[in-house]
Write a structure and sequence with these properties.
Structural class: mainly beta
Radius of gyration: 13 Å
Number of strands: 11
Strand content: over 45%
Shape: globular
C-alpha cells in the first residue's frame, strides 16, 4: 500500500486548502484512513479519520467545524478540506491507512500501518 498526499502550500489566515491523498491498492475501500500533522518541534497529532464507507468521521477538537474529511472509494482518494485556516494549522500533513478489520475510525498514530511522505501547509498571519 502506498499513499501520496498533495495540495499543500502557502495560504493566508482565513483561507482554504484542500489536501488529497491518493492510495494504491485494490482494497482501498477496506482501509480506515486518517490525516495527521506535525509542526516543527512538536509531536505528530491526530487531525481527522474516516471509516471504510465514509459514513463515520472523527475530528480533533482543534479542527472541528473547520476541516472536513471525505473519501472517494471509486477514485482511491481521500480528501481534507481545510477552511478558516489559522497560523497554528501550519504543519506537515500526513495521510495514513489502517488495515485493521476491526477498526471503525482510528485516532492513534501507532495503529496505522502505512503512511505517505507528507505535504507542507503554511498559514501566514
Amino acid at each position: 500500500v502506498q499513499l501520496q498526499a498533495s495540495g499543500g502550500g502557502l495560504v493566508q489566515a482565513g483561507g482554504s486548502l484542500r489536501l488529497s491523498c491518493a492510495v494504491s491498492g485494490r482494497t482501498f475501500s477496506t482501509y480506515v484512513l486518517g490525516w495527521f500533522r506535525q509542526a516543527p518541534g512538536k509531536e505528530r497529532e491526530f487531525v481527522a479519520a474516516i471509516s471504510r464507507g465514509g459514513g463515520v468521521a472523527q475530528y480533533a477538537d482543534s479542527v472541528k467545524g473547520r476541516f472536513t474529511i471525505s473519501r472517494d472509494n471509486a477514485k482511491n482518494t481521500m480528501y481534507l478540506q481545510m477552511n478558516s485556516l489559522k497560523p497554528e494549522d501550519t504543519a506537515v500533513y500526513y495521510c495514513a491507512a489502517d488495515l485493521d478489520a476491526a477498526a471503525i475510525v482510528t485516532t492513534i498514530p501507532r495503529h496505522y500501518d502505512y503512511w505517505g511522505p507528507g505535504t507542507l501547509v503554511t498559514v501566514s498571519s
